[in-house]
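User: Here's a chain of 234 residues. Predict its fold as C-alpha cells.
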Amino acid sequence: MEPVKAIIFDAGNTLVEGGMPWYEYYRLALERTGRPMQFRRMAEAYERAIRRMTADRIAVGNGREGQIVGLNSYLAAEFGLSQRQLELALDEVLFDHPEVRHLVKAAGVAEVLDELRLRGYRLGVISNWSADLPRTLSLMELKDYFEGVFASEAVGYSKPHSAAFLIPLDRMGLTPGEAAYIGDLYEVDVVGARQVGMQAVLVDPLDLALHGDVPTVASLRELLDLFPDLRPTD
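Assistant: Prediction complete.
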C-alpha cells in the first residue's frame, strides 16, 4: 500500500461486533428455516443484498420514488425466503442466544490501535451509525484512541456517499490521499472510500477472498503487516 498518515475505521463488524458474529447468527437462522447455507454462499448472498440495498437507497436519495426497507428484506429474497420467515428464525436464534444483542470489541482491537498510534498514525472513525456512536465507543473504552468519531446520523450522509467520507476528512484536516479506510463491506466501505481517493482495506473474518482487487485482513492484527512504522529511524 502507498504510505498514508491516517487510518480511518468503520465501527460495526470492524472495531466492534455482536456477541455472536453476524455470519453465525444468520447461519443458525437459516438452519431453522430448513435452508442451511455454507458460509461462502451466505456471504455472497449477503453482499448481493448490500449491493441492492445500497443502490436502492442512492436512487431514492436522488429522487426516485420508492420506499427504503431494511437489510432483512433484501437478505430474505437472496436466501429464497419471505421476510417473515427470516425474521421469525432470527428471533428464535436471538431467544436462544441473547448475546447477539451485546456489542463486544473486535479481537485484539485495543492492542492494534495502541501500536498504530505508537507508529505515528492518526486514527479516526467514520461509520453508518446513530449519533450515539461516540458514547458507544467510550463505553467500550475505545473512543480515546481516535481524533474524530463521525456517525452518519450526525454528519448527515451515509456511506458510500462521498460526503460521508469527505466531511470527516476535512474536519480532521486530511486529504483523501493521506488516509486509508478499514471496513467490512465491499460495496459500502471499499467502493465508497476509493471513489473519494482513499486507499481501502477489507475486513474478511472468514478469509473468503471474494474480492481480489483490495487488500484484505482476517483480523485487525494483520493491519500491522500493512502499515509500517512512520517514526524516523536513526
